Amino acid sequence: MSSYDRQMEDLPTGFGKILAYHWALTLLIISASSIGFLMLFSVADGDISRWAQPQMIRFALGLTLMTIMAFIPIHIFRNLSFFVYLFALVLLVIVEIAGDASKGSQRWIDLGFMRLQPSELMKIALVMVLALYYSWLDRDRVSKPLWLLPPLILTLMPMALVLRQPDLGTAVLLFAGAVVVMFVAGVSWWYFATGASAAAGLVFAVFYSKGQSWQLLKDYQYKRIATFLDPSNDPLGAGYHITQSKIALGSGGLSGRGFMQGTQGRLNFLPEKHTDFIFTTLAEEFGFVGGATLLLIYLLIVVFCVASAVSNTNRFGALVTLGVSATFFFYFAVNMSMVMGMAPVVGVPLPLVSYGGSAMLVLLAGFGLVQSAHIHRPR
Amino acid sequence: MRWANDKKPKPKKLSRRAFIMLGMQVGLMGLLGFRMRQLGVEQTKQFRLLAEENRINLQLVPPARGLIYDRLGNIVASNTPLYRIQIVREQAINPMQVLRKLADIIPISEDEIAQVLDNMAKRRPWVPVTVTENLDWAQVAAVAANAPSLPGISPIVGAYRNYPKPEEFCHIVGYVGPVSDYDLSKIEDDDPLLHIPRFQIGKNGVEARAEHDLRGKAEIKRIEVNAVGRVMREIDSKAGEPGKNLQLTVDAELQRAALERIRDESAGVVLMDVHSGDILALASAPTFDPNKFVTGISVADWKNLNENEYRPLANKTVSGTYPPGSTFKMVVALAALEAGVIDANEQVRCTGSVELFGSKFHCWRRGGHGQVSLVRSLRESCDVYFYEIAQRVGIERISEMARKLGLGIRHDLPLPAIRKGLAPTKEWKRTVKGADWVIGDTLNAGIGQGFTLASPLQLAIMAARIATGTAIGPRLINTVGEDLMPVKGNTPLDINPEHLALVRRGMFEVVNGARGTARGSKITTKGMEMAGKTGTSQVRRITKKERASGVIRNKDLPWNRRDHALFVAFAPFDNPKYAIAVIVEHGGGGSKAAAPIARDIMLAALEKDDTGYGKLPSQKRRTGDPDEQTPQTPLKPRDRA
Questions:
Q1: What average pLDDT does the segment B203-226 reach?
Q2: Which of A283, A303, A318 sits opposite B36 (nearest CB)?
Q3: How remote is the C-alpha of B596 from its chain's centroid?
């Protein structure tokens, strides 16, 4: 009996799989999404067909996808990882060449029935390929410089493509996800310390390059950073989003102004009220209680994922679980920081809540991986 | 498939790193929660306010400006409806087509259509754009009838100020004009209406001085708007109040008569009721057309008005002050009588001049009047008599009497630039002129020359006070809205009635006596006899040399160096009803140039026999229909300020 067979024997089958399914996680995901439906209903001023309904349909699709993936053994995904990564990379190249120019940056591929955002897919694909790499790599080599090169290349290639779009938010998220996988895989502290110092140097370079011929970021990104540092500089221009967002958040108070009673979102003072800034409407209408509830749900999702990962001796499964949960974490952490004026406006949706097909489907697929890893963890 | 590395898992290491990561994540989430609390709970009040400010706009619906009526109930300042057509792009769907259709109904040129399309393109789709203005009712009706085929087109009714009797009331009513930055800097008024672009406010005359009553209060609508300014709904509204209607004391017919009489002169006439103080006519010539100011006066018109040496813009009745000349002699006589320095029978010898401290003071009559009593001195306007009694009574008592009779003090009328005139005192000369009062000054004051200055309004008041013996004050506005304005000062003056009677007798002789200076302007109708006093005030110094060779006659002098002609009067003598003051600038002698004018106007008033106030239409309490009340004017903002 090979080790493979022995491991397979331990895995649940049939009805056992349904029992092993992470029901709590699923419930939390449904809860977060339901909050999203409510908010999409509210910001559409009670028009369900505008955003809430399409979102529900996508969520139903995503949930089905997650469940199907949950019951597929995790090693199959491990085997597919590299191809998924390649596929996402090719799509990124395609958007670079033929992408639809939306909001001054190329992010979408129009598939007719939906607009696919390859950078979203890449977030999971990168986690998968890095998990594959570190589950394959011998433990002793993890911190060897040479063996650090492949994951860096795997990360930097899509990052470069995403930055070219340019989509700073996604690039940051990709990088953060990759760093987490490398961190939990056991890469030496020293690299992270060195990396942090290098990042500080880069920040300096970025600011130093402004106005120079080799300017590293586009003007609008500098403007966003400047606005972030002091939104009051330009309350009707660059600082408008953050100012209005803070007004909405602040006016919610402890218990909010009531469902569908928020004025900031309904009257369009909030930018991107159904996508990136939907959290402000939640906080405006349900107050601190509403916002904290969503944060608690997110926290539990992350905790459950980490708990599942640390009890999982399948290295790929554990790494993927941690990678997906970290990506998920970065989504909402960046989004919430952004709307609360703690981070620049970079265009990151609130996971499971913001309106949008790609992010929702990709995230649920990611949770499909988490579920699969959970169900098929060695016992 | 081999799970090489999975065989010897080191879960501990993975868990440790995983827990470290989880710890960081939870820490960050704690920070997010803290921030959420900070924004949402601790600063709620401030942010709620900001959210309300965001969404609520105040919309002002301007009130209808109060109307102004004359004594008879004629409208003298009205709001004329003004129709314009506006289009809303998003309602029109195809603005080009709609405008073409509109062009079939009312005249719009291709250029105008292009202009409108251009304007629309620049604005948000729900912002109304004016297509054409100044339409008449028939055109608007035609547009309204075709409304179903003209989506997005709506006729708007505004109002602009119109003065149906521009000549008669230009100086009294004044005019309105768009509020300017200069106005805003000058007035202490936080009425939000003033911040409506080109809101019309009173710029002159009663329009300006009664602005507060005429303006009314805006209806304030609180409108919920979205981020791009589109109106979502009306939250509530606070009712406005239309401006109050005013009724003037001025009789348009008498005003007309007065103006006709002084048409070609630079002159002013004040006719007032001696008992109520009602000003029945307040005419200043030449006049101007206030309607031109409403629509934005052209540079050429403005220049004409400003450079005309007859000063059409000035209201000479209150803003012009002149040496009162001999019309001041009643003041001197009364002061002397009251002081007891003369009595009715005292005679002064006039030889044509009097020599004092080396200066020679002349009587207008070179040969002199001989023995002169008080009544005769008034009748024949003997200067030497008044040199003598002025000396005796002194300037302080003269000026005190002048103020008692309404000269040298400010009379409060709702008119701009009311001048106080001057009843000089020794103290005044010391502080203002920096020189001591000399006896010559008193002599000059005795014949109403020198420093003494009075406006026609003051002279009319003086005549009214002499006629009635009361301290009657002028009254220009009868009612404000429903409120009746009180009569001011009909209390007896502290002057011996016998002295007043004596002076009145003198004034009667001026007009009716065989040798009176105004005998040519006598009213012969029984019971309407007029009593008055002529005045001729010099505007130049007559030199010794000129006097020796014969004083140059007025008609040989350039216009602006001729004497001012004045006349004050009251009538009927037995039972005074009206007082009048006339000034004809550089008109020559008072008896020739001013007295006949006064006689004619007085006669017109007496024959008309005022029957009191005409009834006004009751002021409708209209509430805010914006279409009806918005005083939209098609004017180019043109502020002279």
A1: 84
A2: A283
A3: 29
- State the pLDDT at residue B635: 31
Q: Name B565's bridge partners.
A: B536, B584
Q: What angle do CA B11, B16, B17 make, to 5 degrees?
A: 105
Q: Give me the helix-helix angle, A278-310 and A315-339, nearest 10°.
A: 160
For residues A12-25, average pLDDT: 83
Longest CA–CA span in chain B (Å) reads 150
B/e letters for B505-531, b = 16+ CB within 10 Å, e = fewer, are bbbbbbbbbeebbbbebbbeeeebbbb
Burial class (CB in 10 A: 0-12, 13-18, 19+), B45: exposed
Chosen from A139, A261, A263 to mutate, greatest number of chain B CBs within 10 A:
A263
| pLDDT band (50, 70, 90) for residue A170 | confident
Give the model's pLDDT for residue A98.
Answer: 67
Task: Give the three-state DSSP class for B377.
Answer: helix
pTM: 0.63
- Please give the average per-residue pLDDT across B629-641, as a whole number: 34
Interface test with A, best of B1, B2, B6, B49 (most A CBs within 10 A): B6
Contact A338, A172 (CB under 8 A): no
- Of A306-310, B114-118, B255-259, B479-483, the poorest mean pLDDT is in B114-118
Q: Does the beta-carbon distance from B7 to A268 stay under 8 Å?
A: no
Is A180 part of the contact surface with chain B (CB cutoff 8 Å)? yes
Q: What residues pair up with B285 in beta bridges, in sequence order?
A: B267
Q: Give B59's strand partners.
A: B221
Q: In which region does residue B97 sit, left (phi positive, over 0), alpha (psi from -120 to 50) or beta (all else)?
A: alpha
Distance from the A273 Cα atom to the nearest Cα atom in chain B, whole angstroms: 12
Least CA distance to A252: which residue of chain B?
B40
Nearest chain B residue to A284 by CA: give it: B40
Picking from A231-240, A276-285, B189-198, which range would have the lowest pLDDT averaged per residue?
A: A231-240
Q: How far is CA A110 from CA A89, A361, B542, in A?
A: 17, 16, 102
The structure tokens 């004596």 sit at B502
In this structure, how many other beta carbons lie within 10 angstroms of the beta carbon of residue A285? 27
Q: Which two tokens stand for residue B180?
A: 């300017």
Tell whether the model's pLDDT for residue A2 goes beyond 50: no
- Cis preceding-peptide flag for B286 (omega within 30 of 0): yes
